[in-house]
Amino acid sequence: MAKHENIRAIVATDCGSTTTKAILIKLVDGEYRLIVRGEAPTTVEAPFEDVTRGVLNAIREVEELSGHEVLDGESIVHPNDGGDRGVDLYLSTSSAGGGLQMMVAGVVKSMTAESAQRAALGAGAIVMDVLASNDGRLPHEQIERIRHLRPDMILLSGGVDGGTITHVVELGQIISAADPKPRLGLGFKLPVIYAGNKDARPEVSKLLDEKTSLFQVENLRPVLERENLGPAREKIHDLFMEHVMAQAPGYDKLMDWTDAPIMPTPGAVGSIIETIAKRQDIEVVGVDIGGATTDVFSVFQDTFNRTVSANLGMSYSVSNVLAETGVDNVMRWVPFKLPELEVRNRIKNKMIRPTTVPQTLEDLKVEQAIAREALRLAFEQHKSFAVSLKGVQQERTISDAFNQSASGGTLVNMMDLDLLVGSGGVLSHAPRRQQAAMMLIDGFMPEGITRLAVDSIFMMPQLGVLAEVHEKAATEVFEKDCLIHLGALVAPVGTGQEGRPCVKLEAKFPDGRTVADDIPYGDMRVYPLGVGETVSAKITPARGFDVGAGGGRVLETTLTGGVVGLMVDARGRPFRLPTDEHQRVEKLAKWAKAFNAYPEI
Amino acid sequence: MAHAYTPGLRVAALTVVRKSRRLPIKGEVLAKKGDRVTADTVVARTHLPGNVQLVNVASKLGLPPEDLPSVMVKKDGDPLKKGEPLATTKGFFGLFKANVPSPCDGTLESISTVTGQVILREPPTPIEVDAYLDGEVVDVLPGEGVVVEAFGTFVQGIFGVGGERTGEIKVVVDNPGVPIDASRIDASLKGKIAVGGSHVTWDGLQKAIQVGASGIVVGGFDDPDLRRLLGKDLGVAITGSEDIATTLILTEGFGEIAMAGATFDLLKSREGRKASINGATQIRAGVIRPEIVVPMPEARATAADAAAARGAGLEAGSCIRVIREPHFGRLGIVTDLPNELQVMESESKVRVLKVKFDDGREALLPRANVEMIER
Question: Is B176 within 8 Å of B277 (Cβ atoms)?
Fold first, then answer.
């Protein structure tokens, strides 16, 4: 790998479960910019069974589109010759093969087990199940569960250092009795990471050394009030590379090619969100809605949290969105009347043929209705999970420790949120950016003043892994080519009566327009304000409403524009849709019209 | 670009079908290479380790865990009968002895002086794997199972529920556009596979289950009925292990959709023959689709085109089925594959193809919204 200052051309790939995406980044006039993006089907399945085939195909598309030579036969040309040949850095992320699927175990469900879950999620894993001594299941049920799920890895924790070892050893006995086998790669032992009470190490060794591939790291909860997730998380990453990835066809070759370790896709996206929050010193929420999973990332009060909703997505998991939220919650976002049978059958047909795309406008609207619910559910899960404890240095009191989930809910504060970033097919590839804006607003219900943005072409994973190696390049491309600013949203908190005053917006726009609008409760408005433009605004909420300065208080602030513009959502928070079907359909159509979200037919 | 890759379900009149029949864990393989087998021939057998029971003997006897070895009557590996004492205290001059009985039959697996627990394993459960197809064993996977090969008709469905079944094919409708309702099901379908047209009603399915039909193969089914059948909304498409007596296979999708003519005609031509079906579906990486296999060993000698016919990709002249609204379920022939992206009604910019439907009308469709069919 060339020295940082000498890096002129970078190729990064993301091997998804269905598509491998490649991007080419080059140093142009002292700035790193995205040149092109190419894609090809992922090739971990028969007949190819070699992930590098798809990588080569995606890179070839990049070569064809850009005229930049990256490959010499089947190898990547290093370094860049100063022109259109070779690259200085090649990186990759991967979620092929269903990502990293883990089980975690801890003694007390709301304490060590929850810490273990956080460690696994932070490392980019999907947590399939959480075992705990007090999870209400009988030992044989827990054993059955381990056997049935066949995780890629198990993280075992429990007990504070110096405390009793009985319970954590019992969990070890359960894992040992289950004699777990890994999902991929017959004939190799399942990796188990022990990160519990250090005094139990010899006993755990006795139980698991022979049957599994056991690794012992520092206790992730050495004392009750403190977490130490770092060592466990790093071990998960290492083992993901050495064991799980290595079992996937062709990865050994891909690992040789890359200049830095391959990262799990969600870990990479999380990393870029964290970097942006740190650099701009802001509170950020990011979402990546895929076909099978939806990942939510947040940074509040300098604390990064990530959740994976493994069964919420727009294709493979679309039917599960319906199962989780219920048909009424999906139907409420559909701006026309459609029989329940029709909605149900359509969603199932999407599930069984996940690669299809909406051809008709009606179909697109149904799909975007489902996306709203998928985003809402994933964010609900995130909110209930995001807690303030992270790393070694942050401490909480004993009383907090007994009620973690409840205390965690307070961390996501929508009023403090500065930037909401959306990524994933349904958001990045929405035919109009206004549609992406509306899906984000309806799914997340931002409060006060929030900037909205989407990933232009779905390249946050590659930038995430790049951020690990070359932060400057990642950030420049992220801000200039990846992030499409949709504009600022003003959303007063409070409820009122339809048509009564909600908020007054006074602003002088760069083009000379002056606005002094009273926006009634229940309305949505969009004011043109382009990318890079700002406006000084005076926002006066009506009595009982708050835009961030307190109930009824005036907020004077600078608002930024975007491809959609300056958006005002005066539908109140908490938000309620009319229950009467006729009114509901009328309202949805009115809001969509205000945003110019759909073509008139 | 003159052709494009698109997924498609196989509908093959005559082909070679190979199925690997594996045990979940290592065991004994009963069949040899070259053996002729029928669907119900047991080809491999093993024993699944029994359930584990944990008994905290130390706490039951009020002893510290480290004293456990001194009171244990049974040792590691000892066989157990339900009610037999696992441990007995010495008592007081031989009196007031306390016992901990075994809660089950099985063997003693381990004794822990840390937790005071004794781990017992219940007797193993026997597991057998049958051949599933009438055919020939062409390979033996030592300790794991065999590969069975059959020659005959192979039809993939799009979605199914219920596991492996066999039965004689019986077509219960006159044409592929007719739904199966209860009136088309009678007692003569016991043990048979009913093949129908566009849809099966809830009553029709219930009656099939009631008369003991092995399976139903049909164009479509309604999602609310699937929910009634499973007792819950199906979230993720991983099926095959449902406890349903009649396996259901959909060839087209959800709703009322006429079965593709080629599929219907092919199955009709196999009426009266024994078929093996499996509803197992997994729509994930490594997709699994439900299937209907009709072994026809006698056709092997005369079949010339068995392995051919699978086109590499979509091209002008390919037969396709539309798999999304607005032309969902319709069949046609590709007439052109334009290179340029086209804007759809939804304003999505996509790669498209031109298709001519059976009625002569033409349409422009996203390539992602069709699948290739063999006819």
Answer: no
Flag whether pLDDT at A242 surpasses 80: no
Indicate the average pLDDT of chain A.
Answer: 87
**Which of B110, B323, B345 minimises the CB distance to A353?**
B323
Give how far A404 is from chain B: nearest CA, Å. 28
Distance CA B193, CA B279 (A): 12
User: A80 and A103 in one domain?
Assistant: no
Q: Over the stretch B161-206, which tens digit does the pLDDT of each residue have?
A: 999 999 999 999 999 999 999 999 999 999 999 999 899 999 999 9
Share of chain B above pLDDT 90, in %: 53
Question: Which residue range forms the structural domain that includes residue B112?
Answer: 52-121
How many other CB atoms are found less than 10 A from the CB of residue A582?
9
| Residues A322 and A467 occupy one common structural domain | yes
Between the two ends of chain A, the Cα-to-Cα distance in Å is: 54
Supply B297's token pair. Answer: 């060993």
Residue A182 covered by a domain: yes
Q: Is B1 on the interface with A (CB under 8 A)?
A: no
Quick one: A90 and A201 in the same domain? Answer: no
Q: How confident is the model at residue A54 (pLDDT cuts 50, 70, 90)?
A: confident
Residue B32 placed within a domain: no
Give the sign of the dihedral formed by CA A62, CA A67, CA A68, CA A70: positive
A565 within domain boundaries? yes
Residues A65 and A132 in one domain: no
In a domain, A234, yes or no: yes
pLDDT, residue A404, reads 44
Interchain contact B77–A (C-beta under 8 A) = no
Cβ of A346 within 8 Å of Cβ of B253? The answer is: no
- The b-or-e profile of A209-233 (16+ CB within 10 A means b, else e) is eebbbbbbbbbbbbeebbbbbbbbb
Q: Is the pLDDT of residue B362 over 90?
A: yes
Contact A359 B110 (CB under 8 A): no
Of B255, B289, B323, the residue at which a domain comes to its end is B289
Q: What is the pLDDT of residue A46?
A: 55
- Are B116 and B218 found together in one domain? no
A409 and A543 co-located in one domain: yes
Query: Based on the structure, what is the number of domains in chain A?
Result: 3
Report yes or no: A53 at the B interface, CB cutoff 8 Å.
no
Q: What is the identity of the amino acid at A565?
A: G
Q: What chain B residue is nearest to A428 in terms of C-alpha separation? A: B348
Enter the pTM of the model.
Answer: 0.81
Residue A328 at interface with chain B, using a CB cutoff of 8 Å: no
Residue B281 lies in a domain: yes
Which residues from A are below 8 Å from B255, CB to CB? 342, 345, 349
pLDDT at A401: 47
A210 part of contact set with chain B, CB < 8 Å: no
Are A184 and A295 members of one domain?
Answer: no
> pLDDT at residue B110 above 80?
yes
CA A542 to chain centre: 35
pLDDT digits (tens, 9 = 90+) for A85-142: 999 999 998 876 666 788 999 988 888 888 898 888 877 777 888 999 888 888 778 8
First to last CA, chain B: 24
Select, from the ranges A93-102, A331-340, A537-546, B9-18, the one with the highest average predicted confidence (pLDDT): A537-546
Give residue A449's domain range: 270-390+398-594
Helix axes A166-178, A139-149, angle to 10 degrees: 50
Rg (CA), chain B: 28
A363 vs B282, more confident: A363
Output the six-digit token pair for A216: 């012992």
Tell me, yes or no, whether B145 lies in a domain. Answer: no
Report if residue A256 sits inside a domain.
Answer: no
* Residues A280 and A239 reside in one and the same domain: no
**How many structural domains are present in chain B?**
3
Closest CA in chain B for residue A343: B223
* pLDDT over 70, % of chain A: 91
Give the domain CATH number at B74. Answer: 2.40.50
**The domain boundary residue, chosen from B66, B92, B121:** B121
Rounded to whole angstroms, how far apart are CA atoms A402 and A517?
Answer: 49
